[in-house]
């Protein structure tokens, strides 16, 4: 199982990166950290700086064909920055076009909205995205994890760090198929 983890250069919620990363590793998979620039990314614990992580590849160096699935960690600032980067948005959309699974937690669905891939899909997220997702044509539910197969791919979403155990179990199972 090869999983791409797409994050902005800063603003990703550290636990929403490290716990899913560990879940992929524990399942015998290979996680790859992808970002918009080479170097390191700055993770956060909510609004406070946390650790930095080395970028493996940039969005210009990868395609959906390189991976079995895509993980979009949350945090407020990271997904907001990603949705403004056309290359990152195109990379996300390419997984939907290829029919490959995507997993997004917390604020990460902002990038999905920008990629125009949520219309007709059922998702969960951090509650403040509810109206954004509905306005983009999605059905929003308040569930620990939501697995939507009503589209070109499987879309796994969760609300917050407290949902990480269920989120990781769901996407690892889907990515392993």
Automatic annotation (TrEMBL):
It comes from the Bacteria. The keyword Ubl conjugation does not apply. Belongs to the peptidase C56 family. InterPro entries: C56_PfpI-like, Class_I_gatase-like, DJ-1/PfpI. This is Type 1 glutamine amidotransferase domain-containing protein. Keywords: Glutamine amidotransferase. CDD domains: GATase1_PfpI_like (cd03134). Residues 2-173 form the DJ-1/PfpI domain.
